[in-house]
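I am still getting used to backbone structure tokens and would like to learn alongside you. Label the sequence line and the structure token line clearly, so we can match residues to local backbone shapes. Would you write everything just below, so we can both look at the same thing?
***
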Amino acid sequence: MTSFSKELSFRWSDLDPNFHVRHSAYYDFGAQHRIEILESLGLTMKVMQAQGFGPILFREECVFRKEIKLSDKISMYTKTSKVNADASRWSIVHEFMNEDNKLCATITVDGAWMDLKLRKLASPTPAIAMEALSIFPKSESFVTT
């Protein structure tokens, strides 16, 4: 598998006054896809709650290249671009592609795992999180730090 993918369906509420997808909707789609992917890898909300950890973001950035309108057919492709050796910190990239395979936007997030009791970065990284990130598809420019 080269990436996780998802076809997007836009709602009227996803639009801005210019009738294209509003900037914050991109972030919502990315966040939802990340959670769906973690769930598919066995890293469910229940598991994270039971083990007392969860993902946190340090940075979330979107680069917009082409506008997306309500009826556009868009697919989002998600992969990791960077993961520490102990999987404690990571970067994930979401690419929004139109039906002509043109890049419309790219979201990059940098994150880590948080210990929910201590409210600090989880140390060591929970084994299930390490396993999930090890099988997450990787970008062409993937690096281990």
